[in-house]
Amino acid sequence: MDMEEKPKYGEPKKFDPDFKGPIQNRGCTDIVCCIFFIVAIVGYVAVGILAWTHGDPRKVIYPTDSMGQYCGQGTLEKKPLLFYFNMMKCASPMVLLEFQCPTPQVCVEKCPNRTMTLVTAIGDKQDWEYYRSFCREDPGVKKSVPQILQEKLCPAYLISSKPFLQRCFPSLGKKGEVITVGDQETFNDGEKIRDAKDLVAGMKNATVVMEGRQVAMKIFEDYTKSWYWILICLLIAVVLSLIFIVLLRYLAGIMVWVMIVMVIAVVAYGIVHCSVKYVSLKDTPGANITLQQLGFQPDFSVYLHIRQTWLAFIIILAILEFIIIILLIFLRNRIRIAVELMKEASRAVGYVMSSLFYPIFTFFLLTIVIAYWGVTAVFLSTSSEPVYKVFNETVCPHARETCIPENFTLSKMKTDCPQSECLFAFYGGETPYHKYLIFLQFYNVFLFFWCANFVTALGQMTLAGAFASYYWAPNKTKDMPAFPLCASLGRSLRYHTGSLAFGSLILAIVQIIRVLLEYIDHKLKGAQNKFAKFLLCCMKCCFWCLEKFIKFLNRNAYIMVAIYGKNFCRSACDAFFLLMRNVIRVVVLDKVTDFILFLGKLLIVGLVGIFAFFFFSGHTDAFKGTAPSLHYYWVPILTVLVGSYFIAHGFFSVYAMCVDTLFLCFCEDLERNDGSASRPYYMTTELRDILMKDADAAQTPTSRDMAM
């Protein structure tokens, strides 16, 4: 086999006297994919500009009157509340289909605090002055009551109401078992005397329409009250992660064992705390009902008053503790070797100290990508136009047809159905832009995955290039570049943007397929076809495994690109076969190191999560009066837990990338060189002792049994 020929599976590479590590002459790779990526980014910017031009986020924030105007905005700035002329019309089943009550709606400054009819109010000057503030337009003094009602200029009656979700709902109460409104059991709707209970159906339908928005608004309100405390908790996670990373640099051996012990201790504390809560609720009324009986509750704090919830926590934490302890017992010898590998990684990090802060740059880029995607998605979803439809209380051939409010009174629809109204129904549109809106949303999601994967890939290749510079430097002090991280970042962007785009594109395609499968699964939840469900489940499982494999392959391909400067496909192929030729080392050493780093992430999340729980839940007297009053205190806690994990993952990924790079370089070095004077190893003596010891241990029967 000559020097240019690729080695066969299991066959080591020959010595290449011209190989000088990652600092060498190289050219641009995967140029076609680079051009394609740039064009896609330009298109993404165009989609954003288009969305920002047509979109209006007010559509999902503020209520809209019958003319499509936003309450509390523009000329209606002083009228933030929505008032329904006839709440009983909301009892129609069409409300749940079209999300609009078939009754006129106007924006008002305050909800009515009196109960009266149009007939009684129009005869009293003071009452009429108050009453007409709830009319669509001033009827003047010439029009009679029948004319006002026929043209639906004013409501037939007012009911004492209270604001709820920026809408006026009747103030219902109870006298014993009888429902009342404004302390009265009946009310006059302008035509006859009705029972207060007749309002319940309309209120229930109107409430169902807004339930999702209610929960979303409460969550949004919780974020507005607690965002700075969330940032403080995330800052604590950053500080803890930095402290652990720096301590790993100088005290790698000690810190690994400290992390392992502390993880076990934190999980054990969780088991004890949940057990105490479980026992304390033993004699509490209502605490013994099951979660199935309770059903779904938007206020998650309700579940914490149920014993079964704490029992579930105990079981989950106990299983987690058992798994961790069992793994530690069986991998104790491998962990000792992995600790030595962590020490070598710490030495490499010591030569590239700026790598410890590189995750901050990655976080910054990911924040830009996520923010751009989120803002574009909101503007795209609100870039539709108001659609008006015909609403009629009686049978009408034009019911639910689209209409134009400006000329509706002169239209044939109004002539055929004199009692009909042209009211705002929803947001949509018939223009080419609105027809292809779903494709723009799809493009937004796809480019989000592609850009996010590209940023992650850029971080991996940059760190790999910096640590490879350390490995392949014959003299670590003299031959290392002055700024290895900046040099590696420059090489990655200048020569290998196409390779980064290629790898992240493949991953983005798999991820978007997984999103589509989840969407199909959501749509088929009510389906009875068990074969279709089984097939969909198998596909979801297969694509999940495929995504994990591609992430693993991409990561190692980027390392090979950083070392040799070859294109993505060649690098991925070389990395895969190199790992296959050293599969025992990969399984029993490299993955053990990943497990140790995962325990470190769990420790950071556990420590910050415990602090966030006691702070936001108010279960500790020390934080009472300081913690904000929230609807759902689980909202900031979950945010802190997820954010802390990503922060810890970002910082610990520096060590993970260092270990993976050193490991791959070691395997490559071992195949190219034999340690002789003419072909010396580039690896340090310490790294050779660690990995050679592992190679010897891998041959023992005990180790083989453990690996199996």
Characterise this structure.
With 708 residues, this protein is mainly alpha-helical. The chain has 22 helices and 13 strands. The protein has helices at residues 31-54, 94-98, 118-122, 125-131, 145-150, 198-250, 252-280, 291-294, 307-330, 332-351, 358-381, 412-416, 432-435, 437-471, 484-495, 497-523, 530-564, 568-580, 583-617, 634-672, 685-698, 701-707; strands at 81-84, 105-108, 116-117, 157-158, 161-164, 167-170, 172-175, 178-181, 186-188, 193-195, 385-391, 402-403, 421-428. The strands form six sheets. Strands 12-11-13 form a three-stranded antiparallel beta sheet, with no helix packed on it. Strand 7 and strand 8 (178-181) form a beta hairpin.
Give keywords:
22 helices, 708 residues, two-stranded antiparallel sheet, 13 strands, mainly alpha, disordered C terminus, disordered N terminus, single chain
Spans of at least 5 consecutive residues whose pLDDT stays below 50 are 1-10, 92-99, 202-210, 697-708
Number of strands: 13
What is the gyration radius calculated from CA atoms? 33 Å
**How helix-rich are the residues, as a percent range?**
55-70%
Profile the largest sheet: 3 strands, antiparallel
Structural class by SSE content: mainly alpha
- Morphology call: elongated
Average pLDDT score = 77
What is the tally of helical segments?
A: 22
Distance between the termini: 35 Å
How much of the sequence lies in strands comes to: 5-15%
Order of strands across the main sheet: 12-11-13
